[in-house]
Amino acid sequence: MLQFGTELLGGERMRIGIYGGTFDPVHLGHLILAETVRESLSLDEVRFVPAFVNPHKQGRPVTPPKLRLEMLRFALVGNAGLRLSEIEIKRKGPSYTYETLEAITAEHPEAELFLVVGADSLDDFPKWRKPERILELATLVAVNRGREDPVIPPTVDQERVLLTSMPAIDISASEIRKRTQDGQSIRYLTPRAVELFIQANQLYLEPETEAP
């Protein structure tokens, strides 16, 4: 479909999914979640937005942004509906979602934004920085990853939240890091190119420790 700016032929608004996280490393669960949401909500694209510093997951050393970006580039090859955004990496500092959404809105004022999160993030969402502003800028898409049914907190505007689900795939970045450290296979947990990149750069071989 031909696109001009943020409007599609026929006057439809472009629908953009925003999927943030540390992605350390990106794995098949991330990709399946993004593709499931893209298809189920008829999104034009889902943008992976790796955090420079994730304010919700501080406490352990994180792989440098340059390497996490490279893994994402490998992972997204071949799917035009999944794209990489470096907006938070370039901004540096703690990556607050409302700031990212404001920047994307300024860039694409006519687009309709959908913020993609795991359903397990709903409980903590009211504690995020400026959650009301987030819901002004985007519809919150909470994805049930095969665990307990999600519950929308009473303080969150129900009309600004969509609940959807994906196949139950129990893969986590922490599991991949631990298996790599222990010398175990990570085949079929992450794209082959990402697996080879991890091996070539000797990532995740040191035990994880709390950041000072």
From TrEMBL:
Q: What class of enzyme is it?
A: transferase
Name the CDD domains on file: NMNAT
The record's listing under InterPro entries reads:
Cyt_trans-like, NadD/NMNAT, Rossmann-like_a/b/a_fold
Q: Which residues form a coiled coil?
A: none
The pathway to which it is assigned is: Cofactor biosynthesis; NAD(+) biosynthesis; deamido-NAD(+) from nicotinate D-ribonucleotide: step 1/1
Q: Which GO terms describe its biological process?
A: NAD+ biosynthetic process
Pfam families in the record, alphabetically? Answer: CTP_transf_like
GO molecular function list: ATP binding; nicotinate-nucleotide adenylyltransferase activity
Listed EC numbers: 2.7.7.18
Domain of life, per lineage: Bacteria
Occurrences of domain Cytidyltransferase-like (ranges): 18-179
Query: Which reaction(s) does its UniProt entry say it catalyses?
Result: nicotinate beta-D-ribonucleotide + ATP + H(+) = deamido-NAD(+) + diphosphate
Task: Cite the entry's keywords alphabetically.
Answer: ATP-binding, NAD, Nucleotide-binding, Nucleotidyltransferase, Pyridine nucleotide biosynthesis, Transferase
**What functional role does this protein have?**
Catalyzes the reversible adenylation of nicotinate mononucleotide (NaMN) to nicotinic acid adenine dinucleotide (NaAD).
Family per record: Belongs to the NadD family.
> What is the protein named?
Probable nicotinate-nucleotide adenylyltransferase
Source organism of this protein record = Thalassoglobus neptunius
